[in-house]
Design a protein that fits this description.
single chain; Purple Acid Phosphatase, chain A, domain 2; seven-stranded mixed sheet; about 220 residues; nine-stranded mixed sheet; alpha/beta
């Protein structure tokens, strides 16, 4: 994996090599695919419309981080595991920012699972191929909601926005939640809350701390 940043943590899920990246993405070398969840485009716009003072530029900052990940992995595809949007697809600053970003990455295959915030998603308008609520690929089942697969495939999900605490650091950090037969991805959007979860019962957490992926606990 030429050019992959040192901050990536190489592990196996369902005997398949993947890399968990400290910038809140998973890279699947066998598919040359970058995988993220909970992009939440337009969330800050929704808050401002509601009269809540929030900083502008959240979408731009998230997409700049995505630029770095695409460059470091040389991924040919991007999958978004649900919640591409947060709110309606009204014409707003984030739409222009996304359109410009998409033009810069015109050769990138961008595909998305449907999340609970994606009722208004028009994939064609954003140049995103919509995959539906779940897709099986290799040993994995991709879906937004973290529900077990009755056929026993390893689920790659989002929705929960897992976070964890790192010993000696007085705040929580986005995290990959590695559970039995399931991996819950951290929210990619920097402008989002989260749920602090704990390692244990055969699960582990990989904290995303300033671009580094740090294992907290171990999978038994």
């Amino acid at each position: 994996m030429p050019g992959l940043r040192d901050e990536g943590l190489a592990i196996k899920l369902a005997d398949e090599p993947v890399v968990l990246l400290g910038d809140r993405a998973m890279y699947w070398p066998a598919r040359s695919r970058l995988i993220i969840a909970d992009l939440h485009l337009g969330k800050s716009h929704v808050f401002r419309q509601a009269g809540i003072a929030v900083p502008q530029g959240a979408t731009r900052d998230d997409l700049m981080r995505l630029d770095r990940l695409l460059e470091s992995t040389a991924a040919k595809g991007l999958w978004i595991v649900g919640d591409v949007l947060h709110g309606p697809m009204a014409r707003a600053d984030w739409r222009d920012t996304w359109t410009q970003w998409r033009k810069r990455h015109a050769r990138l295959d961008v595909e998305a699972l449907t999340g609970n915030h994606d009722r208004a998603l028009d994939g064609a308008a954003l140049d995103i191929r919509q995959l539906g609520e779940s897709v099986a690929d290799g040993p994995f089942l991709f879906r937004h909601l973290p529900l077990a697969d009755p056929h026993g495939r390893h689920v790659i999900a989002g929705h929960v926005h897992p976070k964890t605490r790192v010993p000696g650091v007085p705040r929580s950090w986005p995290a990959f939640w590695l559970r039995k037969s399931m991996t819950v991805l951290p929210a990619f959007s920097d402008f989002t809350g989260g749920q602090v979860v704990g390692a244990g019962d055969g699960s582990a957490l990989v904290a995303c701390v300033e671009g580094s992926a740090l294992m907290i606990g171990f999978v038994s």
